[in-house]
Each structure stands twice: as C-alpha cells, then as structure tokens.
C-alpha cells in the first residue's frame, strides 16, 4: 500500500505507519499461518486489501519483518511501547520462517522467555501436600481420580453454573476494574475442542465466551476458569485493548510475548477480584445454581497442585509422545482419558508452545501484581511484555528468579485460544 515504511526513509517513519505495516504483515502471514491473529480491531480496509492480494510467499514476509525491525530503531517511542512492537516483530519473523524449530526455540522466539524442564523434587512435594488433603487408603492417583469424578459438573447444569459465576464475578470485578455500561459476555457450550474455554471479542463491548461441553469440568475449578475467560480475564482485557488509543493495540497476536502476560493475568483474575476464600465464595454461588462442591478443599488443592502445572510444559518439550504420556500420568496423576486430552493440546502444532503462556505467565504476573489492584489494572490496560515484569538483575549477574516464582527465563530481558487447561 502507498505510504508503507518499505517505501519511505526510516528517519521519517512514525509509530502509526509502523503499527499499520506490522498489522499488514500479520494479516498477510495469517493467510499462510491461519490462527496467527487473535483479533484485529483496526481499519477493516486493511483486511480487505490483504484478502484481495495474491497469496504471499513466506520468504517475502520474512524479509518484510526484518525491514520493519530496522525501521523501528528510528521511531521515538517510550520503552514499553517499543518493547511491545519489537516483540510482535520477533514473533512474526519466527512465524515467517519456512522451517520449524524445536518447541523450546518456538517459545523463546515467540514469547520471549527461555524454558527448561521442571524440578521433580517440587512435584514430589506437591504430591505430599495433595496426599495430606486427600487422606485414605489406596494410591494417591486413585483418590484424586475419585474426587475429580465426584466433583464433575453434570452436563445439563454446566451452562447455568457458568452463567451464575460470570454474573457474580462481574459484580466483584467492578470493585477493582471500571467497566463500561454497555459491555457483556455471551456464554456458549461447544464440543470437540482441545481447550476448556475460549473467549473472542466481537466488538462494541461484547464478547462470546465458549466453554467445552465434553471436557471433564470440575465444580471446584470452574470459578477460576470462568474468571479467566470473562471477569476480569480475557473479556475485560479485550475491553481495555479496544479502548486504547495507541494504534498498535488494534492488533492482537495469538502467538507473541503479550499473550504470555495476558494469559497470566487471566489466570490471576479470580485472585484479583475475590482473593483468599474464593473456594467457599464460589461454592455458595454454585449452590444457588444447583451445583455442590467443597469450596475450601478446592481452594487448598488448587494451591497444592500449582507446581504441577509445569508438568504440561515438560510434556510439550519432549520429542517422544510415549515418554510425555508417562510423565503426565506420573506427575499430574491423570487417568488415560485425561492424559489424552492434555496430549491433544501439548502436541497440537498450533498450541504446543502456547502451553508456556500458562506455565510461565501466571507466576510471573502474580509476582508483579503482589496483591496491588493498580498493578492488575496496568496488566490489563498497558501493552506490558514479559521483560517489563521482571525486576532488573543486580549489576554483573544474570537474573535467576526463584523456583517459587516459576519463571524459567534465564536473564529476565529475553525478548487470546484462551483458557488454562485444567485437569
């Protein structure tokens, strides 16, 4: 298109032009790599323009990404906005490569963090804590399987339970985050998807939140999932992004550094608006909808099992599917059906690297938030990337966050599917 940075001197480039050209690059790449864009709320003429073009070649798009990267160096921007645009370009450049890399490489280039396998000693400690919460005879896996089965929400009651939780969370959300008067979420149940929940912004303050009708949704975990997708999770983040004036916010990539922060904030949503005691609170809401669960036990188990979330990333990083299955069964204490459901996600070419957004995103965002409501609002309103959330390293040393934070980036400055995959 006329006026793109490819036809102008870099010194004259503006952020508006660069943001538009990044959007054009992403829209073109999305034709070759469908699903790359989570949403586009900018000028619909750009999408129509790209749709009418000849299908682009990946090598041309890779070259365009490199030209835009060089141009960005000449644009005067605050550090947060510059990091956001640089991260988007790095993710787009990786997507334009004609040959794929390892899962670890894809995570590094796409989300801006370096990952490594989890610590089995932390997994053993998590098993010990779960065993204390579920005393009794027989193997721990069998005791947990019995709880999971007993706690599953009957399919006929799922829609009602989800809607009740969304309404209650919306009321709590208003105490932390301002909501426009005309916003709303439509709840749908769908079948045959590899995720538990997925939220898409429709525009004009409206979203549709879809929840799996065939996944084994547990009552004790449902509040965290609904908060993740609706209030103050993905739906509310969409509202903030749509209201942003910065032109680059019109584009939301499914796979980019910002996705890790967005998923982390969505996983934090229940803690941000309800906080300690969310288990009994959710149990009361569900009881009014005809669903019963032990809220206190659900909250305690959620905390005990949190270190086991890294097991999913371990499985995604493994090249051997049989070894990945054995790892999931052993440490997540899953039966065969649940193991296969997790395997569908962590081996799907489109979603395998996305596992890192949950595993790394939540502890990183939680440490940044530290219980402060203004920081949670920043997570929703500003284009923060992972590097912006990590405290600077001491002079002369590499930042190595503690295991409690769960962040596996090596130095802290490495450069929207939605729904934490519960089990």
TrEMBL record:
It comes from the Bacteria. Residues 391-413 are annotated as: Disordered. This is DUF885 domain-containing protein. It comes from Pseudonocardia oroxyli. The lineage of its organism: Bacteria, Bacillati, Actinomycetota, Actinomycetes, Pseudonocardiales.
């Amino acid at each position: 298109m006329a006026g793109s940075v490819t036809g102008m001197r870099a010194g004259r480039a503006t952020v508006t032009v660069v943001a538009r050209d990044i959007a054009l690059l992403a829209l073109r790449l999305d034709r070759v790599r469908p699903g790359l864009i989570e949403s586009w709320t900018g000028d619909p003429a750009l999408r129509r323009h790209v749709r009418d073009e000849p299908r682009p070649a990946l090598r041309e798009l890779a070259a365009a990404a490199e030209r835009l990267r060089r141009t960005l160096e000449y644009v005067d921007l605050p550090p947060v906005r510059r990091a956001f645009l640089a991260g988007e370009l790095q993710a787009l450049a990786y997507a334009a490569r004609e040959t794929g890399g390892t899962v670890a490489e894809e995570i590094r280039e796409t989300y801006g963090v370096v990952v490594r396998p989890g610590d089995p000693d932390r997994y053993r400690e998590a098993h010990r804590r779960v065993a204390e919460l579920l005393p009794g005879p027989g193997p721990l896996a069998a005791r947990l399987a019995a709880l999971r089965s007993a706690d599953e929400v009957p399919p006929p009651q799922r829609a009602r339970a989800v809607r009740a939780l969304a309404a209650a969370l919306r009321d709590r959300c208003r105490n932390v985050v301002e909501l426009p008067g005309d916003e709303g979420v439509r709840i749908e149940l769908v079948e045959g998807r590899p995720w538990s929940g997925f939220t898409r912004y429709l525009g004009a303050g409206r979203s549709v939140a879809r929840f799996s009708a065939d996944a084994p949704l547990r009552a004790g975990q449902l509040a965290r999932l609904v908060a993740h997708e609706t209030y103050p999770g993905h739906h509310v983040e969409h509202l903030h992004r749509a209201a942003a004036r910065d032109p680059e916010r019109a584009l939301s990539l499914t796979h980019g550094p910002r996705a890790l922060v967005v998923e982390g904030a969505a996983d934090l949503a229940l803690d941000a608006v309800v906080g300690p005691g969310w288990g009994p609170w959710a149990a009361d809401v569900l009881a009014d909808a005809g669903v019963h669960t032990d809220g206190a036990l659900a909250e305690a188990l959620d905390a005990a099992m949190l270190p086991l979330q890294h097991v999913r990333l371990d499985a995604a990083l493994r090249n051997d599917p049989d070894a990945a299955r054995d790892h999931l069964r052993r440490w997540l204490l899953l039966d065969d059906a649940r193991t296969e459901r997790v395997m569908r996600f962590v081996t799907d070419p489109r979603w395998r690297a996305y596992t890192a957004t949950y595993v790394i995103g939540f502890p990183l965002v939680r440490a940044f938030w530290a219980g402060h409501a203004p920081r949670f609002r920043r997570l929703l309103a500003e284009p923060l990337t992972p590097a912006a959330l990590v405290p600077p390293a001491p002079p002369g040393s590499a930042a190595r966050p503690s295991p409690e934070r769960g962040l596996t980036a090596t130095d802290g400055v490495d450069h929207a599917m939605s729904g934490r995959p519960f089990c």
